[in-house]
Amino acid sequence: MPLPATMIKASRPCPISGTPDAFEVCSRDRHGQPLRNIISADSGLIYVDPVPFENTEEFYKTEYRKSYKGVHQPKPKHVYRAGNVALKRFSRLSKLLSQGARCLDAGSSSGEFVYLLHKRGFDAHGVEANLPYAEYSQKELGISVCISPFSEYKTDERFDLITLFHVLEHLENPVRDLSILAGFLKPDGKLVIEVPNILYPDMSFSHKWHPGHLFSFTDQTLSMLLEKSGFKVISCHPTGDRGNLWGVFEVAEPVEPIVQPFLALQNFDELENGRRKYFLNFQNYFKFIPKMLNQLVEKKATNAMKGKEILDELYSG
Question: Is the pTM here over 0.85, yes or no?
Answer without folding.
Answer: yes
